[in-house]
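re: ur msg from earlier - yeah i can do the zinc ion complex, just paste it... oh wait u already did. ok heres what im feeding in:
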Amino acid sequence: MKKHVHRSLMSLGVALALAGGLPASAAPAPTATAAATTTTQLPRGVRPLHYAISLTPDAAASRFTAQVTIDLEVRAPARSITLNAADLRFAGASLTSNGAATQAAQISVDDEAQTATFRFAKPLAKGRHRLALDYSGVIGTQAAGLFALDYDDAGARRRALFTQFENSDARRMVPSWDEPAYKATFALEATVPAGQMAVSNMPAASTSTLPDGRVRVRFADSPKMSTYLLFFALGDFERATAQVDGTELGVVTRRGALPQAQFALGASAAILREYNDYFGVRYPLPKLDNVAGPGRSQFFSAMENWGAVFTFEYALLLDPKISTQSDKQDIFITAAHEMAHQWFGDLVTMRWWDDLWLNEGFASWMESRTAARLHPEWQTALAAVGVRDSAMQRDSVTTTHPVVQHVATVEQASQAFDEITYLKGEAVIRMLEAYVGEDAWRRGVRAYMREHAYGNTVSNDLWRHIDRAAGKPVTAIAHDFTLQPGVPLIRVADPVCKDGRSTVALRQGEFSRDLVERAPLAWRVPVIAQLAGARGQGRTLVSGGKGSVSLPGCGAVVVNAGQSGYYRTLYAPKSFAQLTGAFAGLAPIDQLGLLADSWSLGMAGLQPASDFLALAQATPANADPQVWGRIAATFAALHAQYAGDAAGQRRFDAYALTRLAPVMADIGWNAADGEATPRTNLRAQLIGVLGQLGDPATLSEARRRYGAMASDPQAVPPALKKSILAVVAQHADAPTWDALHAAARGEPSPLVRDTLYGLLASAKNPALANRALALAISGEPGETIGAEMINTVAGTHPDLAFDFAVANMAAVNARIDASSRSRFFPMLARGSSDPAMVGKVRSYAEANLAPEARRDAETAIAAIQDRLKVREQRMPEIDAWLARQGR
Ligand SMILES: [Zn+2]
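and the outut:
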C-alpha cells in the first residue's frame, strides 16, 4: 500500500513544513524486540484452503448479498468454527462433511472482536469440510471493505465500486480467516448489471447473461494468497492493455479517462521488465491491472492487490490541463511501489503485522531504486536524503518505535503504516545494501523469493539469505537498526593529518530531541567517509561506541559520504567550518546530507541553529536544483516557525528572498526547451515558497497570469497551473475565492475539480478558511474530498481546523475511513504553536481513542511541544545570525 503522504501540498508548491520543518515523532514505545510467535485473533484449529465467493452488489442501495463456500481443514476436533466478519448479516450456515450437510445450530456474531462463530450439533472431526454461508453486507462511502466512489460524467452522476482490504477489511465483504498467514485460493463470481466492467485479481474465465439481463462473471481461481489482497471493482470502465514477457498489463479507468492512463501503462511495462529480472522469479499471474478510482483516502493512495492494483486517480492519471512533471514522477513511483509488492508482499508475505516493514520498507526502497535506474534524467537518487530525514524526524523523539514492532490489535496494525515502517525501513535497506554491495544484496533477495514463494516470513528469513549471499554477517547490524528504536549520532572529531593521511576519531551516541534520562542505545554503524573533493573512500564499522576512519590526503572530511548511512553526523566546530568553506565543491548528495543534519542538529541544540544558514549562504546560485529545493523548503519551515512574530518573520523573509530570488530569476517563469526536469520541478516549488514568503514580485506575476488566463492561453501553462493557482488561492480575497469556488463547481474533470476544492482550503485569510471548513462538510465537494480540505486548512490554520473538526466530529468522521480516525484529528493539530493545543489534543484522545490508539495523538503533542521549545531556545540564535548579516 502506498501510504498517503500529503504530496498535494508539495506539488502545489505550498511546501509548508514538509521537508525538514516539522519536528516529527511518535508512538507509545513498544518494548524492545518483537516476539517471534505469530499473533492471532482466531482459534488455530481450523484453516481455510479455498474460498468460492458469489457476490451480488446493489450499488444504488449501497448493499450486497453473497454466498461463500469455504473448503477448510480441521486440525483438531472442534465444536464450532470462528472466523472474521464485520458488519455482515448471516442468513444461513451449513457444513458439509463426507457428503452430508448439516445446518449450524447457532450463529453468533461478536461486533467488538469482528468475528462470527458457527456452532454445530455434532463436533467437527479432523480432516476436510466445506462451510457454506449466506449473508449480506453494506457498501461504504469510504475506502474500507466494498465501497462506492461517485463522480460526475457529463452532468450525470455515476457510481463505481471498489474494494480496499488492507489491513483487516476483507472481513467486511467475505467472512474469512482475515489474517495474512492464512493463505488460500479464491474463486470469485459476481452478478452485475449489463454494460458494466467487473475487475478482480484474475482474468474472467467465463461470462454469461442471465434471463433478467444481468451478467454473471466468473474469475479464474487465484493463486494461494492472503485475504487482504483480494480485489473487486465494478463500473462504467475502459481498459487498455500491453503485453510484457507473457503478462497482460492493463490500466482501467472510468469511461473517457483512458488516454490519461497511457503514461502509467508505459511506465508499468518498463517496471515489469525490470522486476522480472531483479527478483529472479517471473511475475506469476496471467495479468496485472492498475485500476483508477476518483476521490481519495486519508490513509493511502494506492494498494497492491495481487494482479489488480488500485490507485486513486490523482496518483495514476495525467490530465494535460493540470498535471506537472512532479505528478508524472509520483505516478511512476506509485506504480513501482505497488508492483514491487506483487513480489514483496503478495508472493512472499509477512507472517503477521509485526513485520509489515518487510512489505513496505522493501517496496519503498524498490520504488526509489527503480525510478533512479529507469529515469536517471529525473535525478531522483538525491531524494534518498529526504526519505532518511523524514524517518529520522519521526525516529528522534522518545515515543518512536522499532521497525519490527509487536502488533496485537487491528487498530495497532493500522497505525503501523507510518514513517518508521516505510521510510526508516527504506533507509535501513539502502544502508545494508551499500554495506554488502548490490550484487550480494540481489542474490540474497532472489534466494529469499525462491524459498518463500506463496509462503509467509519473518524478518530473520530475509537476513539469513542476505548473510549467506554476502559472505559476512549482516544480521547483527540489521537487528541493531530494526529491533531497537532511534537514531545513532556519530560525533566526528577534527581530523589528525600525519604522513599525508587523515585519521578521524568517531564516537557513537544517540540523536534525540527529547531524551532526558536514559543512556544512549548502542548500534553497530557502517560508516563511509571521504575527503572533500577527493575520490577514495574509507570504510569502517563503528562498534562498541567508537571507531575511526583513515583516508589518504589532508583536508575537510565528509562522514557518511554518499549518505547511505542511517545516522546523524555531528562535526567538531573546526571541521564544520572547513566543510562550510568546501561546501560548493561537495557532491550534491553530500550537500543535501549536510543541510539536513545541520538543520536538525541545530534545532535540537547540538550545534548552532544558524549553521544551516551558513551553509545556505555558502551555496552557489548554480548548485543542483534539488539542493536549492531543500533550502527553499527549510526556509518555508523557518518562516512558519516565526508565526505570531510579524516583525521577526518579515526580517527573515527579507533575508530568504536575497537567496531565493536570484535562483528564481535564473530559472525564469517560462520553461526552456529541453530543460532538465529538476529545474522544472524547482520552478514550481520556488513559485510556491516565494508566494508563501509573500514575495511581492511573485505575487503580482502570479496574479497577472491568473487574470490573463481567459484571454491568453500561454499565461498559465499546465505545468505551472497548480503553482500559480496556489499562490492566488493562498492570498485570495473574497471575490477571488468566490471565483475559484465557481470554477470548482463548474469543472467537469474530477481530477481538476478536486484540486480546485483543495485550493479553496489554502487561503491565509481566516474568514475564507472558515468558509472552506464549512464547505468541506457540506457534501458539495464529494464524500472523500471534504476531509482533505480540512487537512489543507490545517496546513495554514491548525487551531482553526482542529477546533472545527472536534466541533463537527460526527460529520468529519463520516468523511474519513475508519482506519484513519485515530490519526486524522491529532494530525490537524500538529502544526499548532499554541500551548493550549496540547491539552486540547489530550482531551480529544482521552475522550475518543482507546489507549492503544493514541500514538498519533502523542506524536502531535510532541511536535507542538518541540515547536514551543525551538521558539524559545533556538530562534534567538537565528535572530542573532540575521542581525550579524545586517538584517
Ligand atoms: Zn506499500
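cool cool. The radius of gyration is 27 Å. ping me if u need the other ligands too
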